[in-house]
Every structure is written in C-alpha cells, then in structure tokens.
Amino acid sequence: MLVSHEPPPALVTPEPQSLLTDEPFELMLENSGGVSIFRCKSQPNLPNGIDVQPSDDGETCVVSGVPRSPEPRNTYTIKAQNQRGRNVGVGIVELELGVELGVAQLEVIGVKARILRSRWSQAASAHHYNLYVSRDQSPYSLLATVNAADELRYDHVVHLPDYLYASYMLETCYDKPGRDCATPSTVEVTRDMLKDAIGLILPAYGHVSAVNQFGSNLALSADGRFLFVGDAADDTRDISMLGILTPANFPPPVTEQSDENSGAIYLYQHDGAGDWNLQYMFKSGSRGVSANAAGTSFSTRVLYMNQYHISYYDKLETGWAHMGYVLHDESSQWSGFGYLHQMSRDGLLLIAGAVRSSSEVQDGEYYGPSLFFYTRADVGENFNLQQRVDVLDGQQIELVTHSAISISDDNKRIVVGYPNLDSYTSGINGVPAETGKSNSGGAFVLFYDQYTQEWYIHTTLSANVLCNNAHFGFSVSISADGTTVAVGAPDQRADSGGINPSEEECGGITTNAGTGYLYAFDEGQGAWQTEVVLKTPNQGPYFNRAFGTSMALIADGSTVIVGARSEVSQVYGISDTFPESPILDYYIGAVFVFKKNGPKNWNYSRLLQVSHLSSCDLVFSCLQ
Questions:
Q1: Which of 468, 457, 539, 547 is nearest to 505 (CA)?
Q2: Any bridge partners for residue 280, and if so which?
C-alpha cells in the first residue's frame, strides 16, 4: 500500500489588513509547504461577513467576503490542514485585521473657468456626504450636504486663482445605529488640478505666495500666440535686474536673498493645440506691461535707483535683448512717471504719462498730467523723446492713480482717459460749468500733425451727464484707422439698461452701474459725434455692475467688447441671449459684445461669462 508523504502546509504571515464595511475583500495566504489543503479555519471567528476556505486547487487558504459592521483590529489564528499519510498535517499563521467604515475618496478638478468640481465614488452604506472648504488655512466651513442617492459631485463657483492651495474635506456619514461619520478625506487644490480650466494660466514654478500679483497686468499679441503676464509682487532675485531667463535657469524660489516686490514679466506662447507654454521670465519689474502687435517688443515700468523708468525689450535675430530705459531728464520733479505707458502696434511709438509733483513746482508752473512721446525708426533701436504734451493746463492734480490709453494703427491718433479728473464739461468739447464733479473723469483725443510734426489735443470728451465718482475714461479704445473711439465709465449711475437708454441726472441708489460711450469722427466736418451709449442689457436693478471696466474695439470699429467686472448672473459660458432672472448674489463678471449694423445702429450680440474679467487683454483672449 502506498503512503503519501506530503509535508504539512506552511502559511506565511501576511501584512496587517484594513477592511472597509460593505466593500468586497479577498486575501490569498501564501503557502510555502504542502498542498492538498482540505480545511481552513480561524480562531476566533473572523468578522461578520468574512470567512476562510481552501482555494479551489487546494494550494492555500483564502480569506474573503464582505464585512458587515466595523470591528476593532484583532489577531486571528488561521489553521490549514492537509492529509499526510494516515495523519493530518497542520499549518498555523496569525492574521491581523480590522474593519472600518467605508469612506468615499475625494477628487477635486478645475472645469470651465470658474468652477472647482469635487467628485467622489459611492461608499457602501453611506447615507449622505458633507463637503467642507478652507481657504488660506482658515477653519473648515460646510459647503454642501449631498445625499448618497444624488449625483456624487458638487460644483463650487469661485474665482479660481483665489482658491489655489485651498483645501476641501469630505465626510462620509451613515444612518445605521452606532455609525456617525467616518474619518474624512481631504484634498488640497494644486496648479495641476486647474490645468483643464478654460483660460487659466498660473505661475509655472515655485515663486508663488499669498502676496503674489501674478496677472496684475497683461499684454497679448495680435494673433493671440504670445501672452505677457506681469507679477508686480514677485520676490525672486536676479543680480543684473535685467535678467532674461528660460525655465531651465530660473532663479531659486523666495529666500532670504529675495528682492521684495521687485516684479517680473512672464512670456507664454500658444502651441496652436490648446496649451500655453512658458518661454521666458524677464526680471525687470512689472508695473504695467505693453507689447507690439507681433509680440516681439514690450515695455514695462521699473523702479530703479529710486526713480521710475520705462524699460523696453526687443526680440532680435539673436534672441530677446534689453534695449534700454525711457527716463525724463526732470524725472525727480515728476510724480509717478510712467504710471501710464503704451507701445504702438508696430513698436515704433512709446507714450508715457506723468504728473508733476506740487512739491517741485514753482509759482505759476504747470503741474497737471502730461504725456511724453518717444519714437524710433525701427525695432531694435533706442527710443528718443519726440514731444511733451501738457494735457490739463491749470488743473492741479497731485497724482493720477489710474488712466488708460489707446493708439491708432498709423500712430497718428490716440485717446487717453483720466477717470480721476474733476471734469467741468459734459459731452464733446462741452462748455465749462462753474463747478466740477469730483472724479467724474474725462478723455482726450490727440492728433499728430504731419506738417508741424507735433501732437495736439483735438477734442475733449466727458460723460453726457456729469456725476461724482463716475470715472469716465477708466477704459478707452480707438479703432485701427482712428475714426471710432470707445470710453468706459464703470461707476456711472444708471436707472435703465440697453442701447441708447435715457440718461438720468445723478441720484437714486443705482451706483456703479456703468456706461460705455462710442464716438465717431466725421472726416468731412473734422469733428467727433456721439455714436451710441451702451449699458448692460441685463434686467435691473443696475447697481454694482461696473459695466465699462474694459472697452475694446476691433480694428474696423464695427464691434465693441465691453467688460463688466461685477455683472450678476447664474450662467456661465457663451450665450446669444441674456438670462432673464439673474441671481444678484453672484457678482461674477461678464463680457458683452455689441455689433454695428449701420450708422448709429448697434445691437447686442453676445455674452461671455467665465470669471472676473477686467482687462481688455483678457477680453481678447476669450475670443480666440
């Protein structure tokens, strides 16, 4: 008679196991001994819903099942038996395991341009989920409670840059006795999570902090391929202060060797397939940036040696180069030199604004705002001062804190806005009133006389109705041929909306509604005329819309794009019609498109809503 000499099983001690309620579990115990196992058992009994049985081939024991209730961590002795001749062979191993409540795992992604989407998988036996959010390491606050039977996601409508590095927390909660809410799952928002959000670009490397101002100023090339993004508060140090750096040789992140608020300009290039790629970092300040149409020249304001300069760069055959500074000879007598600066489309004209400081003024000497015109013959050459134009002779303005400028394609006409001007006239070349309106604002159209080769003020523009703090001139734009001008007054009062509405006298509570004005130049008469007055097409009440924060004309002047940084709505995306029932709590911002169908005949065309847009450059990028 043959006798089997099969050795006894030799089970290998497994790693400790953590099980989740109502989720299937299986563990095959490793066996380095004899096989033909016919019995497996545990002492004490495994948690409710879990059992141990021989595998189908008899080579090992399998622990499997669906745990039904939480169990504290415990050690279980597993015995495996096989037939060893007339005797029974036994293999013994200890298994440590525990059962916890099932927990949903949270994921956060950026979708569209103002939505952070939290989503998660269903946790068995869950009754509901609590979603919390924390910004800037503040205590968590409850954002939403979602029933387990509903769609397992939540769209948080936010201004995405404000929520970079925010943290979301998800609690899985139960309705069975003895079950409350499980240990939460947390996620911190990172740049990678926002990469799919429409139109959002974030700093591409480690120079990020709560005080950064990435996106504080922008410039976009005419073809939409090159985007210059300023960060006025960038702290990274570059010894030359003129560094032109690629991502491979960026300076280290903020350290004790940092230069506080030294600023930087980042240049991104669009690859044509939907992605923006960082090409260069220019370590040369960032108090405003302006670029030519080709994206091969740009200027920025720099504080250097306790004086403000306009620094400019050109892309030459050998690569990018710092070409020089624009600095007025009397800069020490000028307050805020370069607070306003604009480069022409061809990169051959550079205009800088300044206001003379009253502390440096002698009796009777001018100290209103002035414009300095610098020209050059070709890109790659230096700019030279052509002319200074005193815009507001006689009005004492200490400092213009905001202004706007736009240049026609032939460099022969410009429009400049001064929203903090105390205007004494209304309309076009209006008759001065006895008293002005504080911060009502004004704009000026300047022409270049090719015979005298000098610039001169051709026309003054003001709102049709002067109101305190209307800020007419906050945004301006001029068409390519210089025959159409757009001016925004984002804080103008209004009690009606639409195209050519009635313009009420200043009063009521409808502050910050905003208005956009368009003017057309009659070449035959040599004069400007009001083309159309625009206000938000949304329903009232009209307060706090800030319609006119940005104004941009396309080249032929037949389309105007108007930004309203605080427009209200419950929708996002692109729409041909405006929603009839906005939610007044959502001051999310919007961009409106109006098109011209004939002389003084304009129609509302399109609504764009993606985020808090307040820059003409962002308006253009939305239309790509």
A1: 468
A2: 267
Q: How far is CA 72 from CA 69, 97, 99, 300, 593, in A?
A: 10, 8, 6, 65, 63
- Contacts of 296 by beta carbon, 8 Å cutoff, 6+ apart: 314, 315, 347, 379
Q: Where does residue 129 rank: exposed (0-12), middle (13-18), buried (19+ CB within 10 A)?
A: buried
Q: How many helices (H) and strands (E) does the chain have?
A: 1, 40
What lies within 8 Å, CB to CB, of 347 at 6+ separation is 292, 294, 296, 297, 314, 379
Residue 169 pLDDT > 90: yes
Q: Which of 103, 277, 336, 298 is nearest to 219 (CA)?
A: 298
Task: Reduce the DSSP state of residue 104 to 3 states and report it.
Answer: coil
3-state helix, strand, coil in the chain (%, to 5): 5, 45, 50
- The DSSP result for 241-270, as a single string, is S-EEE-GGGPPPSS-TT--TT--EEEEEEE
Tokens representing 623 are 């239309």
Give the tens place of pLDDT for each residue, 529-553: 999 998 887 656 555 678 888 999 9
Is residue 445 within 8 A of residue 461, CB to CB? The reply is yes
**Cα gap 374→386, rounded to integer Å:** 5
Which structure tokens are listed for 313? 């760069």
**Which residues touch 50 (CB under 8 Å, ≥6 apart)?**
19, 25, 63, 64, 65, 66, 67
Distance of CA 458 to CAs 105, 341, 354, 523, 533, Å?
66, 20, 20, 13, 21
Distances (CA, A) of 391 to 97, 259, 375: 81, 36, 19
Q: Burial level of 420, CB count in 10 A (0-12/13-18/19+)? A: buried
- 8 A C-beta contact, residue 391 and residue 329: no
For residue 206, the model assigns a pLDDT of: 47
Longest Cα–Cα distance in the chain: 130
How far apart, in whole angstroms, are the C-alpha atoms of residue 332 and residue 311?
17
CA 179 to chain CA mean position, Å: 42
Residues 6+ apart with CB under 8 A from 410: 481, 482
Q: To the nearest whole percent, how much of the chain has pLDDT over 90? A: 31
Q: What is the CA radius of gyration of the chain?
A: 34
- 229 touches 618 (CB < 8 A): no
Query: Per the structure block, which two tokens stand in for 530?
Result: 């009001």
Name residues whose C-beta falls within 8 Å of residue 424's C-beta, 6 or more positions apart in sequence: 432, 433, 435, 436
Task: Tally the residues of the chain.
Answer: 624
Q: What is the separation, in whole angstroms, between the first and last Cα of the chain?
A: 89
Backbone angles phi, psi at 168, to 5 degrees: -115, 145
For residues 456 and 436, give the distance between their C-alpha atoms in angstroms, rounded to a whole number: 24
Strand pairing class (87-100; 17-20): parallel
Alpha helices, DSSP H, located in 96-232: none
- pLDDT given at position 611: 40
Q: Read out DSSP for 136-147?
A: TTPPPEEEEEEE
Closest listed residue to residue 173, CA positions, set 275, 251, 260, 101: 101
Which among 124, 129, 128 is positioned nearest to 101, based on CA atoms? Answer: 124
- The separation between CA 21 and the C-alpha centre of its own chain, rounded to angstroms, equals 42
Q: What is the model's pLDDT at position 408?
A: 95
